[in-house]
Amino acid sequence: MEPHTGPWKKNLVPAWYEIRVAGQLDETASDAFAGLDVTDRDGVTVIRGEVDQAGLNGLLERIRSLQLDLVDVRRVRRAPIRRPTEDPEVDRSKEAL
Fold first, then answer.
1. What is the residue extent of each domain of the chain?
2. pLDDT tens-digit readout, 6-42
3. Which of 16, 50, 51, 96 has the fewest other C-beta atoms within 10 Å?
């Protein structure tokens, strides 16, 4: 068997995760997730980013060490990147007429 092959290899591939914790993080707690997208939605903080399995375990350990209340962890598809001029509320289908 070649090195770095086998069923565990898929764990080395990064994936996008969305982690939800209860409440709004203060600046210190938010800084612990530098490099990830951290947003507040209706009393829940959403931490989103691309990590491999080891990185995900590290994030969960960080949440535990900060004594945050873990609500949900899910693997998600990467959201499309919108250009600043794009507005999803504007229907541009009739602009060419």
1. 22-76
2. 665 666 789 999 999 999 999 999 999 999 999 998 9
3. 96
pTM: 0.70
Q: For residues 17 and 46, is the Cβ–Cβ distance under 8 A?
A: no
- Burial class (CB within 10 angstroms; exposed 0-12, middle 13-18, buried 19+) of 49: middle
Q: Which residue has the tokens 């770095």?
A: 4
Please report, as a single letter, which amino acid is at residue 66: L
57 forms beta bridges with none
Strand partners, 74: 18
3-class SS of residue 61: helix
Cβ 51 vs Cβ 14: under 8 Å:
yes
